[in-house]
Design a protein that fits this description.
mainly alpha
């Protein structure tokens, strides 16, 4: 479970940074978010899971003042796309809907020479986003961002995108520097400040991160205020103030009951407090919002293992492995399942025989 805690923290960071690059100009030891590239832990630790792109909470402005989640974009694609005047417009909306295959296909048909510099910068950021999330190719992603910044070094959208890529690569000081540059250009962006706090926390400076978001936490008129409330809970969990963290997660979920990552963050705090039955109930709430996600199933199996519910653990783990084979490698090394290493069904399930 310890590996999955870190994975969930990485997942949320990736989700949030993707939201940032799409909106701002556009799965701790406890850090919410995961690089979408396949990654490995340090020696002796298990592999992380890759986030489902469909989980990323897009709540900002894409190509104008259109507000809504990726689900809303998907539901309205048939209505929106026919009225778009250019291929780039369509690619923007496909990216907003996280239909990245379609976005990249459209972008591949475009000629940069036909675009003004300002539109070319958007084109390069979209290409970078696709390479990062769809293909896991950070080298190409950085190259496209460099092209956007060569056009305009003060492009906050490109700097935010660069930070997301650097975060994926574990280059946290560089990611922080990119966000600082973006804030120097647009100091009004609350979301950039929130994602900056996440990077600071990943650098082991959680208390500093908490202090940095406090002014925004006091401003209840901010758009997506629930996000900063949940973020405060997330940061408190990192500092092992998990009872306090849960209160903030509950407050955030009261403001936005459909905030998927709010449930995942609350589940992590419950795990650290060893309140496993409550954690299962929280994971069930997440499952209702976004069904069939491997880390929800896997974490449910971890809870059953902790509760000594052997049959429940085997069933939940089998379901997780069926959803994503990486769960198999993860479970074989996870200390939560150590007590079952002599269980024949467990050994067969995770390939220890």
């Amino acid at each position: 479970m310890k590996a999955i805690i870190k994975t969930l923290f990485v997942l949320l960071a990736t989700a949030c940074l993707t939201n940032l690059l799409m909106t701002a100009g556009c799965k701790q030891d406890s850090l919410s978010g995961q690089s979408t590239a396949d990654s490995k832990k340090e020696a002796g630790k298990s592999r992380m899971f890759i986030a489902s792109f469909a989980l990323i909470d897009l709540t900002g402005e894409i190509g104008g003042n259109t507000i809504g989640t990726s689900k809303r974009y998907k539901e309205n694609l048939n209505r929106i796309l026919p009225v778009q005047k250019t291929t780039l417009d369509s690619a923007i909306f496909y990216s907003a809907a996280l239909e990245l295959d379609s976005a990249m296909q459209l972008l591949s048909r475009m000629d940069r020479k036909s675009l003004s510099d300002s539109l070319a910068a958007v084109y390069y950021v979209l290409l970078a986003n696709g390479e990062r999330l769809l293909n896991g190719n950070h080298k190409f992603a950085i190259s496209y961002i460099d092209s956007a910044l060569a056009i305009n070094p003060r492009n906050a959208r490109a700097l935010n995108a660069k930070s997301a890529i650097l975060n994926d690569l574990g280059k946290f000081p560089e990611a922080l520097a990119a966000l600082d540059s973006a804030l120097a250009i647009d100091s009004s962006s609350a979301k950039t400040r929130w994602y900056r706090a996440m990077i600071i926390a990943r650098l082991g400076r959680a208390e500093e991160a908490l202090a940095s978001i406090e002014p925004d936490f006091q401003n209840k008129t901010l758009e997506d205020y629930y996000f900063v409330v949940n973020l405060k809970g997330w940061l408190l969990c990192i500092t092992n103030r998990c009872d306090e963290a849960i209160a903030y997660h509950d407050s955030a979920l009261a403001l936005n009951p459909k905030h998927y990552f709010g449930y995942l963050d609350k589940a992590i705090a419950l795990y650290k407090l060893e309140r496993f039955e409550q954690m299962i109930a929280t994971l069930d709430q997440a499952d209702k919002l976004v069904p069939n996600q491997v880390w929800v199933k896997y974490n449910r199996a971890c809870c059953y293992a902790k509760l000594k519910n052997r049959d429940g653990m085997i069933a939940a783990l089998a379901d997780a492995i069926k959803t994503d084979s990486l769960a198999k490698a993860n479970a074989s090394q996870d200390p939560d399942f150590m007590a079952y290493h002599n269980d024949a069904d467990f050994r067969k399930l995770v390939g220890l025989e």
